[in-house]
């Protein structure tokens, strides 16, 4: 008879933003197919630490649990990734769970990532259509164009690329790879290109695209394999061209 | 009359965002409430595509064919005029999404590509890889962000709807909601509200739905006097990946692109599936339904899989699973058209479905029933509108694949303008004391939960609820089990009074939020179980072996549940179905309809 297997988790707790964080350990019975989310659900149903101390269920963000909503990003054994697709059997134990370090902690593993949505506003990440009434079909696109746009459009706004980026911090105010890649997506759309100048202008100056230090961590951690460094290179070139053009126009 | 009306939209999936766009475009102001940032709504999970009879494949498809397929697929339970209007609007909706920049797959000529889905013989489904819902939601999210930056929309993300605020004439004057971080309970006035809060998968424990799909908002409104219609109609999707935390959907598009469902003919066959020769495999859907094959509607496929597993005992390795096989299809085609879902299987199961057949089993997927609405998306309570999966209108007894996205967007496009029009003509409220009354009522609910020092853990109660509902209220239904289910639900409600929240803090407390949802799930569970017990027939997803035939004489009717507060239980009435456009006929998929 095999020994009863268990799963060891070490979770950083912080009841609210105004108190210091601390660690708690949990030991759960192993079963096949566990992931980090199912472990957190298990703890909610029986919130007792490894030492037998009663505690509170862990607060964390989650929704779709199939890595398409972007909610459950956290640091798992130090790496920025989605908790739903983090299979327990593939993780070294004890599994260390921490909130993202570069975003304000709300509670436990939940952080405030609204900065990304603000950035998307700043770069006008949308196609400026005339209205929602019936105006006929959209622009024709080749299969190649669709195949270039689709991967960029799969960004789930998880912010892993920002967490992993050494330049994304309070000193630089860097917008981060996700936003830059969205600029590329909308600038290459035939109608979206109408706002290209404004988008590129928004990426100039402090916190803009020139803050990128080419560490390439972003593309390394992106759960959707978005070609982020390629986006940065292309948009960077466009920003440069526009900046030089602006210089001559003055 | 309100000169500058405000509409509150609750829920930021496709239906909610569609309503927001129309209202903002018409000059109205919107407060948009959502539990999660709207870009993370459950619509992102829709995979395979969106139906519209664009007839770009020279097949002679038409919006009437789409309408007929939808009504027939729903086993004639849907009122027909709104379904027809939706199918007529669908091609224009696809054009709009195309203009918004949705990266739909293309043909070599650069036109939109279409694929086949269940319950039709036409290539009618436009798609963006296998993450169509995600792409559609993002397109609408981007347009709403544009309106937000213009000051026409205010978002309240990380807020949960608790209840409607009703005046002394039972007219809706706003909502009561809770900030999920500060736990503050607040009321918000509005001339009209639109509910777009999705399905209720969580009532069944594990489902393909997202965590927020609890049906809590619909249940709260039902308890406040809204009719809840056709609650007993729950779609169980034939092809899901069983999981610890949820059942992950394996899209119907896998079969639309040629995927085949089979089991080994020998019970308990331990061989590697690829080494089993073709004549030792049973392609039971193709054998039983030669015309539609693997693309029969979901209720049919689900029952067939159940039969093969439980009656023929042919589940893979003796377990409740069958193969969904894509290994005969060119890898390049799979990558171009299905990558998103293959990636899910790879990540969560660990096998590459390009190389080995997937193991799948049916799971709770879609809520056909929902808040009762009229053809303008208005509920029976003045000022409350509903759109999307949370209402009952478009899918009858069974939803066809790729019709959900179109019904969400169409429903939102109807609800937005009608709510705004209503708001513009609304007479002034009789006083405003009911705001304070409602807020206090909800604060007291929270306080009671916080104080309660029983022994019941809400997350454990929820597991029991899920197991109970999945066992008795999904694929196969018996009256005895349904009645027992209702009795069990009463016991769970009683145990709920002895709940113990292991968290009593007042900041981002997920336990109290979940406990509130659980209570609403239990109340709605009774509507589902009792509605199913009453309907003595089989129609679409509702199947009773003791009553195996559709009974139009007695049951061509919409079930309408109302909450009787004194008895603390549902009361039922029935309403005839509007079949003015297509006379009901027997629904058969073993032959051409």
3D structure, described in words:
The complex is a heterodimer of chains A (250) and B (593). A five-stranded mixed beta sheet of chain A has the order 2-1-5-3-4. A two-stranded antiparallel ribbon of chain A has the order 6-7. In chain A, a hairpin with an 8-residue loop joins strand 1 (6-13) and strand 2 (22-29). Chain A starts with 5 loop residues before the first strand and ends with a helix. The longest helix of chain A is centred in the last third of the chain and has 22 residues, at 228-249. The mean pLDDT of chain A is 96. By secondary structure, chain A is of the alpha+beta class. Chain A has helices at 36-45, 114-122, 143-153, 160-164, 177-188, 196-202, 217-221, 228-249; strands spanning 6-13, 22-29, 73-76, 79-82, 95-98, 105-107, 110-111. With 593 residues, chain B is of the alpha+beta class. Chain B folds into three domains: 6-233 and 368-424, FAD/NAD(P)-binding domain; 237-363, Succinate dehydrogenase/fumarate reductase flavoprotein, catalytic domain (Flavocytochrome C3, Chain A, domain 1); 431-557, Methane Monooxygenase Hydroxylase, Chain G, domain 1 (Up-down Bundle). Chain B has 15 helices and 21 strands. Chain B has helices at 14-25, 63-73, 80-99, 132-149, 216-223, 253-256, 284-288, 298-311, 331-349, 404-424, 433-451, 458-472, 479-496, 510-534, 552-555; strands at residues 6-10, 29-34, 50-51, 114-116, 123-126, 153-157, 159-166, 172-179, 185-189, 192-195, 228-229, 234-241, 248-249, 260-264, 281-282, 322-325, 358-367, 370-371, 384-386, 557-564, 569-576. In chain B, helix 1 runs parallel beside helix 4 and helix 3 (80-99) packs across helix 10 (404-424). At the A-B interface, helix 1, helix 2 and helix 3 of A face helix 1, helix 3, helix 4, strand 13 and helix 9 of B.
